[in-house]
Amino acid sequence: MRDKRKLSSIHARLLLTTLIPLTLLSLILGWYIVTSQRAVLLSNLHDTGRVAAQQMASNAEFALFSGNQSMLETLGYSVLDIPSVSGIVFYNEIDESTVRIGTIDVSAKRMSEAFGRDLPFFIDSYWYFYSPITISGIPIMDYDEVGQSDPESLGWVVVALTDQILLEEQKEAIFGALVVTTLSLLVAAWLSMRIGRSISRPVESLTEIVEVMEAGALDSLATEDGPLEIRKLAYGINQLATSVRESNVRMQSEIARATAQLQITLIELEEAMEAQDQFLARMSHELRTPLTAVIGFSKLLAKEEDASKRKEHLRVIESSSTMLLTMIDDILEFSKAHLGGFTLEKRNFNMDQWFTDLVAIHRPSADAKNIALTCSIADDVPRNLSGDPVRLAQIVSNLISNALKFTDRGFVAVDIQCQSAEDNYVVLECSVSDSGKGIAADKIPILFDPFAQEDTSINRRFGGTGLGLAICKRLAQTMGGEIKIESEEGKGSVVSFTCRLYEVDESMLENGDGAMLTEKVLAGVTILLAEDNPFNQKLIVKLLRGYGADCLVANNGLEAIEIAGDLHVDVVLMDIHMPIVDGVTACETIVQQSGESPPIIGLTADITPMEQQRMLTAGAVSVQSKPVDEVKLVNSILKSLNDVNVISENTGGGLLASVIPVEELKAALYDNLDKLDLQLRSGEKSSQRQIIHDLMGLCGLYGMDELRELVLQFRACYGTSEFEDNIKKVQDIRQHIEDYLVKDSNKA
Ligand code: ADP
To answer: Do residues 528 and 561 make contact, with C-beta atoms less than 8 angstroms apart?
Structure first.
């Protein structure tokens, strides 16, 4: 593994890529030089041998003919001076004698055998060159004739040449080539090592830096030097480290933030759990006290003979039971507030009457303690209001009871003022002041906590559960207000709260107690309203909620399909004309998408038999026309649910007319007219149709037939009319609204 890694290093690779081709090249080149040099040397040797043999043949002609041996020897010795020549043999055919000079071991017989083969011939590291000796002095080179007894042939000469010198020269050449090759290989290796090191060293240092960074030291930076590519790499690594460092910092701060948040949540949870534990402990303790009294005194009663004492015991049992009942009521009320908040009813009532009745309840207690109970309502407080008078009375009653309880002499005053008034609602401030014992400043903040009382003696002396103010606080908040206490020990207290109520027209109040009763016939029913006009949405939702239904709203057919697919819905009210996906398509889709689709009731302003049929074919159970007839609508919902209940005109209570104040309707109509006016003036046509559609919807909803007729006329001809005509018609519609809503607001 390690060797493999070594081989894969830049160094090794560079070395291999340089040395392998270089070595191969050197070998091929060396082999070529040596072989070609050998060929040259051999050819030189052959030339020398051949020339020497021919020379000797011609020179020895006479000596051989005359049989002069010493002359032959002289000739022979002369040829030995030539380098490489090792010996010579003269052969005389006449007397078949041979003269040998120098080293030439091969026998004449063997030589003559060899003459038949190629010339020169090579035996035992000697080259032999043959030449015939003839009388004419003209050597006969034809080999076929060699050895034949030619009358003119005198004999032959053979010169022997050793290849020793050739071999030595060759050795020298090989040695020289080897030296040069080795040297060049060494130089190449050295160069490749140097280049390799110049590349690998910065790469190694980068690797080290990356390892350091990997270990967490992201502050260390790579040095940006060396070859361009390495510098780029170093720069990249530094950039990467910087961004990793930054994202680390970001991540750490995110983690720190999330952890802190988690800790806070945990603390809050712990606190909530602790509070719950305390609440339970406190509650069981509180309940136990009167219960113990009831049990204890019941036992005493069983044994007691004396009639007056029995009466006394019965009184204690009764008061303890009453206390227990109050406590249970308070606890239930409180946990109701704690779990899901209060549901407020919306009823119209008269302030003066409500207030008089409320104060009357407390007057006997005030009189009994000889305390002056005064009450006042500021002039600017609207007298005809819509809200939840019962819950409102609950808060004020609680505050008056407290004030009376903690006041021994002096007064308790209840004042109602108008803190602010908006277009359609008022914020009232109601304060209950007393000249009682007051509250210690440090106790005030805790008094809104459940079971909180100023001190433990309070319960003994005055009774109470300490839940009243906690409930009042929740109620005030549900009514969009706040509650606060201002008090000084020994000087009395002022407990005040604010709440939001809606001003209504006097005509909307019913005779008698001023309250309109609505049967909660739709309690627990979830209705999906698919309607694009926000005003209609608001109106129908308020109407349905008045009957106890839970409402979901879709702004178009597509939303309706999605909601019906995702959530539990008992009934769908589907407007036919809607953007994106119309009511008919949405109805078809909902019926098809679920095996058991909720009943769908169509709603439309322009109802034609054809349109009604389309909706019914799409799967609707019935179609209701707009303006919505409250009683018909509620009854058709009940019928679609197979509910045997029906409501009548009397029980309906005319909610539809009262849920949206006239001012709000007027504002919605004007808003649409303003938009239409603006579009006409600017020539913008994009949403003119939609505005007219919305206007007609509003008219339909409120049964404003004359106004609807005007809008219809406008719709029929606004596209072809002159600009001034259109503006004039819009003004007429505006004027009509003013007249209609002022004169005939009952209808609205
Ligand atoms: P409860 O009256 O049943 O004890 P509350 O929540 O109504 O419960 O009141 C909590 C405590 O606040 C009372 O026990 C009392 O100590 C203090 N408190 C409330 N109103 C007054 C007041 N007007 N004057 C003095 N103390 C008050």
So the answer is: no
| pLDDT at res. 339 | 61
Show the tokens assigned to 375.
Answer: 């009450």
Reference 622, options 608, 636, 635, 610; nearest CA is 636
Residue type, 162: T
Domains of the chain with bracketed CATH: 29-138+148-169 (3.30.450.220), 226-327 (1.10.287.130), 342-508 (3.30.565.10), 518-640 (3.40.50.2300), 662-747 (1.20.120)
- Stated as kind and residue range, the H or E segment containing 414 is strand 411-421
Residue 470 to residue 336: CA distance in whole angstroms: 12
* Bridge partner list, 374: 413
Residue for token digits 């009957």? 547
Pull the structure tokens for residue 88. Answer: 């010579």
Most informative mutation of 394, 397, 453 for ligand 1 (most atoms within 8 A of CB): 453
Residues lining ligand 1, Cβ inside 6 A: 398, 402-403, 406, 434, 436-437, 439, 447, 452-454, 458, 464-469, 493, 495
Closest CA to 544 of 563, 528, 564, 562: 528
Backbone φ, ψ for residue 720 (5° rounding): -105, -10
Write down how long the chain is. 748
- List per-block mean pLDDT (blocks of 10 residues) for the chain, which spans 748 residues: 57 82 85 86 89 88 85 88 89 84 78 66 84 67 47 81 85 85 87 83 86 85 83 89 89 91 89 77 77 88 88 85 81 70 76 86 88 93 88 91 93 94 86 94 87 69 77 88 93 95 71 48 88 82 84 89 86 89 90 83 77 86 81 87 67 48 76 87 79 77 75 82 86 81 47
CA 434 to chain centre: 58
Taking the CA of residue 398 as reference, the ligand 1 atom at the shortest distance is 7
Nearest by Cα to 30 from 171, 240, 218, 130: 171
Angle at 438 between CA 432 and CA 439, to 5 degrees: 110
DSSP states of 136-199: TS-----GGGTTS--TTEEEEEEEEEESHHHHHHHHHHHHHHHHHHHHHHHHHHHHHHHHHHHH
pLDDT of the residue at 276? 74
**pTM reported for the whole predicted model:** 0.40
Are the beta carbons of 155 and 64 closer than 8 angstroms?
Answer: yes
Angle at 633 between CA 627 and CA 635, to 5 degrees: 155
- Nearest Cα residue to 701 out of 516, 535, 507, 528: 535
pLDDT at residue 386 in the model: 87
Please say whether the beta carbons of 437 and 490 come within 8 A.
yes
**What's the rounded Cα separation, in Å, for the pair 121 and 143?**
13
DSSP string, 623-635: EEESSP-HHHHHH
Distance (angstroms) between ligand 1 centre and the Cα of 406 equals 8
The confidence score (pLDDT) of residue 418 equals: 94
Are 15 and 188 within 8 A, CB to CB?
A: no
Q: Calculate the alpha carbon distances from 265 to 91, 254, 276, 341, 445 in Å.
A: 129, 16, 16, 22, 23
- Provide the 8-state DSSP code for 660: S
Give the position, in ligand 1's atom list, of the atom nearest the Cα of 470: 6
CA–centroid distance, 468 to ligand 1, in Å, is: 8
Of residues 128, 164, 149, 162, the one with CA closest to residue 50: 128
Task: Measure CA 535 to chain center.
Answer: 36
The tokens for 585 are 């398509």
Q: Which residues pair with 90 in a beta bridge?
A: 99, 157
Q: How far is the CA of 143 from the centre of ligand 1 (A)?
A: 153
Residue 361: CB atoms within 10 Å: 12
